[in-house]
Design a protein that fits this description.
Shape: extended
Distance between the termini: 82 Å
Radius of gyration: 47 Å
Number of strands: 8
Strand content: under 5%
Number of helices: 74
Oligomer: single chain
Largest sheet: 2 strands, parallel
Strand order of the largest sheet: 1-3
Amino acid sequence: MLSSISNLFILERAIELKLNDKTESIFKAETVEKLYGILTSDAVDLVLRKSAAEQLTIILEDTKMHGIVKNLGMVEKILSYLNECIHVDGKLMESIVLPCLTLLRKLVYADPVVRLSLAQQSSLLLLLFRVSLIFQNDRAVLTETTILLCLLLFDEVARTETWADDITSNDTGLSTFSLPVAVVRRYHLPVRISAHHVVSPNTVVVPFSSECLAMKPVSDMLKMAWNLSWYHGIENLLQLINYEKEAEIFLDSLKLSSEDILVLKITHTNYGLQYCLNSVIQAGSHRDVRAALTRLSFYILNDRLALKSSSGSCRMTLKNFVWQKAINRFLQVLPASVEDEKLLVDVLRLLNKLLKEQRSSLDSDHLKWILKSLLKSKPKSLLGLLVRPESQVRDEIDEIQTAVRQQLDKELIRLFNTLLFCSMSVTDREGLELAGSFRTELALKLLQCLRLTDAPHFYGLPSLERTLRGMVHVTALPDWSTYSAAVEPVTICKKYLTGLLEVISSFYVEWGGNAMSFMGKGVTKSTVLCLLHLSHEMMAQAKDTDWISLWSLPYDNSEEQVLSQLGLAWLVPLWVDRDPEVRFTALGIGSALTSLEIGCIALAESCQNISGGLWGTVINILLDQSECSMVRREAAFILQNLLVIPIPTEDVKDCVWQGPCVHDEESGLSQTGKPALKALLYHCQFYEHVNQMVKHCYLGCYMFDLNSSKDNLIIEKGGITDFDDSLNFWNAPSSQSQSSHSQSTSETMVLSASPSLGSVTELRATVPTNSTSFIPETVVDRLTAQGQSDTTTTESPSQHDSPMSAALSKQRAVVTPALLSAVCSLLHNLLVVIPKDTGIALQQAHLLTALSSLVSADLLERCILELKAPFGHPCHIEHVKAQVLLLLQYLSSMSQLLKTCLLVDSQLVIQDDLLKPLLGNSFTILAIRSKDGLDTEITSVLHETWVDFFNLLATLLWKSGQISFPSVTEALANHCTAIIDNICDCIHLSTKFPALYMASLQFLSVLLNEEGRRQLQDKQNICQNPTISFLLDHVEGCQASVTQLTASIIQVCERKSSKDVLKEVATNALLSLLAVSKNAQKCALEVDLIDSHIENMKHIHAQLNLDSLKPAKAQKKKEDNHIKQLRCSMQLLRNCLFQNEECKMAALKAHLVPVLHSLWPWLLIDDSSMQIALHLLCVYTANYPAGCASLCWTSGQPSLPTARSAAGSSLMHNILKLASQVSNDNSPVQQVVFCLLSNLALSHDCKGIIQKSNFLQNFLCLSLPKGSHKNPGNVSTLWLKLLLNISFGEDGQQMIMKINGFLDQIVEMCKYKHKSSQHLALLILHNICFSTTNKPKILANDKAIAVLSACLESDSHAVQRIGAASLWALLHNYQKAKVTLKNPSIRRRIDEAYSLVKKTAPQPEENELHAYYLKCLENIVQLLDC
């Protein structure tokens, strides 16, 4: 069909398209409608429909009729017919294809609108192509499809408006289908049509070559291209010493001028940069150096103005140059004059620009070179310039000199800050040592610069602000105080604390706070931020908690001349500062200090004079809806820390920590401890406020104030003129970048050990609110209003409104996920302190449902997809990354809260409206592939979130597995393969991230244990969801993943030491996996797990024997370790063999039984190990005759039957001996050993040994309770199960009947009303009735016949069936039984049972059993009657 496709649309003759567009028409509209009705009617024969279509093709020669058929929908109908012909029933519809194509061609040719709409449908073009292929032998159909394709494909260049500007829209004539001449000449068209545009109107008229050369731009280009080509590139051209002499052979028009050569030198980056560096090195004056530095600055500026970075950029080129030589002398030699200082300012400015461009990718060698230059020439290095002698300070009389030195200080601080940032990426030992020494040395220099007391420039605020900003950058790095050989880290921290507290006391506290102080806006912010960093450093470096007392601020009251201790109360004014970043950071200091118990006590004591105290103040900040989220978040951290210290249940006066204190002014009563906490939370409506936070949480990456206007902004700015300029940042929409005054805060990197310490790194991700949230009215009275919520006398803000409604009526600031993360941690602590009250409150407010459904996994997936987008804007990517980190941290906190709820009360979580969405979200998040294009930071946080979710799910299954397991299975089924793959990845991270490794495998263990429990219970799956076993073994995508998972866990078990906790977790997971998955067992078999563990058992046996010869005390620990390994190997083998014949065959070949036989003496001295070994043998012998027979061998190979019985030393004999010893013990070992004997009793060989060992005589020794209503006991049940299995074979039936007194014993046990024991005894009696040898003995026992006949009158249908089947068995082929069973009492019971069963309608599920019972009775009656 496709052999002639290349010539398919080449027609022999071109067709001329003509339609009649006369003014009058000879056809009537009714005729056209009738014909169309015939064509489209399914009831009409196809021959008539074809005739109607052909008549319509004639009628449509008249274009006046086109509008009628188009209104009737002819175009759509024709397309549906063509589709039906191609896709549904081609043979049936092919007769009308030709007229339909003709009709469509005429409509398309006549109407440009129809042609345009159809030309844009690629499916129609494909449809016509398929019609052409199918009907390629029909020339008429092929002609029509070819013409149609031509009209549609060339429609764009045929439209009139593309080439005729003078055609008006009111032209009523038929539009002409015309093509450009170029198209007509180029293609073999199937139609003859008119052409237009011999010359395209879009053709550019190119001037003659002589005119081009006369133009200067062209001649310059030609001249440049000629020279570059002649000298084979720009490098060779620039290396010419005498260009004029070399270019003498050129025409004058091709010679480069000196300006051209200069342009080449400047624009060629390599040459230009090298020239500038050489100029700096060879400069003879400051002016020459400054000029070269200026040119270098222009190259850097050009890089920044470029649309995208390229390999030829200045930054990339400088990496290949030795630019350090040009800069080195300026870093080594200190300036000796003002001109030297000016030049150094220029050098430092250039160096700062270079480092800023390369900050994220600075070469470590370059960084180490700079650090060495700064450190090796101490004290005469650039670091020394920060601290000038007092004489130099006094000499700064000249304004120019002062300005130069201020600029020099500014550039120095900027350089040091950049170096601090770059030093974070150093990883080698030398670099880390240099970076650490630089940090500590810079910290000491900045401390000297802070000289506040007796300093002539006491009020040099710009200098002070620069110093503090440098201190912010230094203290933000961990261990910044530890690299000094002369000064202890704690000493440096104490000096820093003293200096910073002096700033606070001098500029802030004594002046009544920010409202009256004339300290600069950056000073407060930087000072408080330094203190926050310092708190973390002191926490890490201090060996005790005495450092907390150093934070207390002394306050000298000159009026009373009493030296009082202000304590930590200086923090409180900072908590209500007008700058939200100051409030945030000051509360961060509070959260850091309260992370220690002594800090909580000190801060609480310092806030005693404030209304409400510490608890009321912090809760008021947290619940203030007009406050920004980052401030409220730190308040939540403080509350979280306060709850860590145990709070007394009752009012205890002598207790150091009493918790909150609530006072009722009306009654005069006070409460402390937990009652006060409950009252405080109730009065301030804490949980209702949290619910509002959740409802108004903003999860987006950007936020815009849609209600703001230009006038409002002007009014706001006018109303806050006393504010600092940093508030302009808060006025603007949050998508704008932060101002320079908040940059130090946003770049602060504090590595906190726990969430309760807070972290400043999230500043860049928080969403600020409008400036109206920070107007003075909202904060000026906070100190007087703070804590009122913890007294019972607080009045509502309104006479008619509740406190809650009044609070909600305020302007609400944005709630971010970071705030809710802190709230989740706070709720976690509340659950621990007051679990019952918190649980009730969470249920009443429906908080857990709201918190768990806030962040959907779909939102997180969309954000991660944005991060993986290849061409995302860097700024947007950073914002989305921050959003993802916040969402992940929230999910982590939320899952920790839910886990705590499960531990306190599982009913809080296992509700359908909460559980099912939670599980869907959880497994979707756990299915995210962390390897696909995510950076290290996000991957790390994602893994931490996984840890919390795995722990949550494991706790859920552990606490309420029976209820939640179906829902967990249903949710897991949607992401099974991805989650198993991710667990494999977690296993490979066992060294880097052991917490994730352990959490994932613990979840896997608990999940598979629940699946194993479900299988053992053998309950039908109520919901039609696939089981875990089905997912692991039968879902196509999961099978390979399960194999990989099993192999990974086995590798961990083999690599890790037996004492390693990680191996224990992996072993538990492997045990669970092998028990429920056939794929896992298959993988274990393929990797020789069975052989390796049997070999390990042999090795353990040898070690135990060797150790037994050594002194007992020294070898006790070793022996315990060997026994532990032995148990582990036997458990793994047990689960690997579970219901798997291939694995059992492998164990048989590996001589499992002989190994256990050799270990038997060691197992006898340890009941736990014996129990595990017996379990292993139970699994091994279940439904595996070859395995049962192997227990009868006296050596590693099977022997003759005579030898087996004669030897008496097989494992079977040992098991019988063990069972005899514990036959009346009722111990776990007894239960397992009888289960094993029940398995072995089905084997002919084992029954032979049992018979010859006289073991069954012990059955007669059972002590049965008197009274039929009592339970005969567990031992009796075990014996009955064993005897039942023996009785399944005729040899076993005869064997047990040979026991003297057996029949009387079993008949007595049949009389017990205990359901399980009675059924087992009756079944044994039922089975022995089938033996011809036994029938006379049974019939001779009146008690046995009485028991069997009494079964027919039992209330249990099962007992009835057993009795009837037994009687039928006795009668079958044994005439003597009739005599006994024709006894009138027995016959009466039989007849009554038979009559009753015929009348009874059985339940649907008992149809087969009822029919069997009826059949038994029918046969009994029939045999007795004959």
